[in-house]
Amino acid sequence: FQVITGGHYDVDCRLEDPDGTVLYKEMKKQYDSFTFTASRNGTYKFCFSNEFSTFTHKTVYFDFQVGEDPPLFPSENRVTALTQMESACVSIHEALKSVIDYQTHFRLREAQGRSRAEDLNTRVAYWSIGEAIILLVVSV
């Protein structure tokens, strides 16, 4: 997960298994990653809390990656070496997975930048309105 907008960019996060046992608990984190293997079937709960910052709304990005990718060539369960075409497909597949990760990272950075720019634009607009009012009062 990663906090995109709001306050000091921190939230509390908690993950519980179907029995209610806490698997992961962190306080006031800007971003983090947690990997685990589910020990049983059921509904796992996660909660992002903003109790310590009641006036600031926050936007949180989170991503689930469940299991391993299926094999590129499922019909061929063999122990022999890959052909040149198969090995090229595997390397392209790995490269595309890293491109997806980079794109996600850049989209998050763009969302943060957009939020800061819109906040700055709002503040400049209010400041300009205030200055216009002051000029009007002084001129009268």
TrEMBL record:
It is a single-pass type I membrane protein. InterPro entries: Emp24-like (IPR015720), GOLD_dom (IPR009038), GOLD_dom_sf (IPR036598). Keywords: Endoplasmic reticulum, Membrane, Signal, Transmembrane, Transmembrane helix. Pfam families: EMP24_GP25L (PF01105). This is Transmembrane emp24 domain-containing protein 7. SUPFAM superfamilies: Supernatant protein factor (SPF), C-terminal domain. Residues 1-66 form the GOLD domain. It is found in: Endoplasmic reticulum membrane; Endoplasmic reticulum-Golgi intermediate compartment membrane; Golgi apparatus, cis-Golgi network membrane; Membrane. PANTHER family: TRANSMEMBRANE EMP24 DOMAIN-CONTAINING PROTEIN (PTHR22811). The keyword Lipid metabolism does not apply. SMART domains: EMP24_GP25L. PROSITE patterns: GOLD. It comes from Pelecanus crispus (Dalmatian pelican). One of its GO terms (cellular component) is endoplasmic reticulum membrane. Its main location: endoplasmic reticulum. Belongs to the EMP24/GP25L family. The lineage of its organism: Eukaryota, Metazoa, Chordata, Craniata, Vertebrata.
